[in-house]
């Protein structure tokens, strides 16, 4: 249940830490991954560390505090937006889900002596899942562990609409967006000048040398990952680390998002390499606030066909046998052309088990094998949105000052750390930066992702009888040592009829 997860996230407590003003200037956030729940959207002596909790596949909840005395929060870290916001104690979110606000935090403006209301600038932000939040921009002291970031501007939310919810009520955790200042809500919606972002305040306060950070999500089942503001952990990736210039998202006149150029996708399976798409130039957004991969129809359909996936009107995602998660197949995404970085994503990271309102309700194919979701959505746009399913396999350095991203293959479940500072001149271990290639003109308008961008709790129609309209095709690879769960049947085989049955 989401509320239990929030309770855990705030009761874990801030890890003891120190901060050294001498180099390296690195501000670190460790996060602990917990089992999937709800619905919605390494420690060193010279690194500030606060715990981060993964709520479901896309929410990485950082323990922060705001105000004097400090008021604690669990906020979602999001590379796809630019504002920090938290709910007010008097918001409709807290009215509808009092326990959620008690667990994840709500801000009482009357209880902070350091709060500054400002000039009454409205705060309005919306997300790809259709949710929207309204309030005021205010200023107060932000704390990460024992480290203070003064004069942090954030949205104090009073009202909301279309917020994803479960049986406990709407999701109440705030969001900490760490993208570009020109993407702030006041700039986009009000035409106001950009305020100094938290990352900008970190630099001006001497906490980091450059407005850059690295993201390491680790394996889905791992307990730890890390985000380093101003630093890179060179033990967490396989060289080479290759840079890519950021480009405007199709439809934008300037760089507002973490968008690079995707150029090919191949599959390595059974000793063979198959080309799914090659010699293309498409924009690809790397977004920690999204769960799955939202892809243009031709690319999404090709991957679904490779898995032998089937569609069902009860669910927004294609369905595949769960046993395919055990397949020895690697999907290799390349960026920036033939000299650019390659990131290999396993079949396991593209297959996810469904989660139901009732824990006793499961999906199975007629042959007895479990049915899972394929972590791919279709978009009418000609760009890719690569979320958690991709980012788990990559070590990503987001450099906001030089407007570039550096990518390398992540090492999974590495216990050692070698943290180095990102200085004003260079990213440690960066081999090269590949040049950009001309992007094609956009052929559709923005905001056209079909289906939820995050991982929903599956709620099939109560009249659903489990009968699919067509049979899945044979996948292009075998499941290998597929899990059977004692239900019989070959999990790697094609399955004809889907049945929703109690376990």
Folded structure, characterized:
The protein has 503 residues and is mostly beta strands. The chain is built from seven helices and 32 strands. It has helices at residues 2-11, 92-96, 98-104, 185-190, 198-204, 297-307, 388-391; strands spanning 26-33, 47-55, 59-66, 71-78, 84-87, 122-126, 132-144, 147-161, 165-166, 169-170, 174-177, 212-216, 224-229, 231-233, 237-245, 259-269, 272-277, 282-286, 293-296, 319-321, 329-335, 342-346, 351-352, 361-365, 371-374, 376-379, 383-386, 394-399, 404-410, 419-421, 430-433, 498-502. A hairpin with a 4-residue loop joins strand 3 (59-66) and strand 4 (71-78). The chain is globular, with a radius of gyration of 22 Å. The model is unreliable at 1-23, 34-58, 443-460, 464-471 and 481-503 (pLDDT under 50).
Approximate strand percentage: 35-45%
**What count of helical segments does DSSP give?**
7
Give me the count of strands: 32
Question: How much is the radius of gyration in Å?
Answer: 22 Å
> Which ranges are low-confidence, i.e. pLDDT below 50, for 5 or more consecutive residues?
1-23, 34-58, 443-460, 464-471, 481-503
Task: Give the N-terminus to C-terminus distance in angstroms.
Answer: 20 Å
General shape: globular
Secondary structure class reads mainly beta
Let me know the average pLDDT. 77
> What is the helix fraction of residues, given as a range?
under 10%
Main sheet properties: 8 strands, mixed
Features:
10% helix; 6-stranded mixed barrel; 32 strands; disordered N terminus; 37% strand; 8-stranded mixed β-sheet; 7 helices; mainly beta; 503 residues; globular
């Amino acid at each position: 249940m989401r509320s239990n997860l929030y309770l855990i996230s705030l009761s874990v407590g801030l890890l003891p830490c120190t901060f050294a003003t001498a180099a390296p200037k690195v501000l670190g956030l460790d996060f602990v991954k917990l089992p999937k729940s709800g619905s919605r959207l390494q420690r060193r002596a010279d690194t500030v560390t606060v715990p981060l909790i993964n709520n479901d596949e896309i929410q990485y909840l950082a323990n922060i505090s705001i105000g004097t005395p400090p008021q604690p929060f669990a906020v979602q870290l999001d590379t796809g937006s630019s504002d920090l916001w938290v709910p007010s104690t008097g918001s409709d979110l807290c009215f509808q889900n009092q326990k959620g606000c008690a667990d994840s935090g709500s801000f009482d403006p009357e209880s902070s002596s350091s709060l500054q209301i400002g000039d009454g600038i409205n705060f309005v932000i919306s997300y790809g899942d259709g949710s929207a939040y309204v309030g005021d921009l205010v200023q107060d002291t932000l704390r990460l562990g024992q480290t203070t970031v003064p004069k942090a501007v954030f949205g104090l939310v009073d009202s909301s609409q279309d917020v994803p919810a479960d049986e406990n009520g709407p999701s109440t955790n705030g969001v900490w967006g760490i993208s570009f200042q020109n993407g702030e809500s006041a700039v986009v919606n009000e035409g106001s000048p950009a305020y100094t972002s938290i990352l900008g305040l970190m630099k001006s306060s001497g906490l980091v040398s450059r407005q850059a950070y690295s993201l390491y999500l680790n394996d889905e089942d791992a307990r730890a990952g890390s985000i380093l503001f101003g630093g890179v952990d060179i033990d967490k990736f396989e060289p080479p680390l290759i840079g890519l210039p950021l480009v405007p998202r199709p439809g934008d006149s300037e760089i507002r998002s973490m968008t690079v150029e995707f150029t090919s996708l191949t599959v390595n399976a059974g000793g063979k390499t198959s080309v799914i798409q090659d010699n293309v130039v498409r924009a690809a957004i790397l977004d920690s606030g999204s769960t799955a991969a939202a892809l243009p129809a031709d690319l999404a359909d090709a991957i679904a066909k490779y898995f032998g996936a089937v569609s069902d009107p009860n669910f927004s995602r294609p369905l595949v046998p769960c046993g395919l998660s055990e397949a020895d197949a690697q999907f290799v995404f390349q960026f920036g052309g033939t000299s650019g970085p390659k990131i290999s994503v396993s079949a396991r990271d593209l297959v996810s088990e469904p989660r139901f309102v009732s824990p006793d309700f499961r999906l199975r194919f007629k042959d007895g094998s479990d049915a899972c979701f394929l972590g791919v959505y279709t978009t009418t746009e000609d760009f890719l949105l690569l979320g958690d399913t991709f980012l788990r396999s990559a070590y990503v350095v987001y450099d906001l000052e030089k407007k570039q991203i550096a990518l390398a293959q992540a090492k999974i479940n590495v216990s050692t750390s070698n943290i180095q500072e990102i200085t004003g001149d260079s990213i440690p271990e960066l081999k090269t930066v590949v040049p950009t290639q001309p992007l094609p003109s956009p052929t559709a308008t923005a905001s056209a992702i079909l289906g939820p961008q995050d991982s929903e709790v599956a709620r099939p129609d109560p009249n659903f009888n489990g009968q699919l309209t067509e049979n899945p095709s044979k996948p292009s690879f075998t499941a290998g040592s597929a899990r059977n769960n004692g239900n019989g049947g070959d999990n790697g085989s094609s399955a004809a009829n889907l049945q929703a049955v109690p376990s």
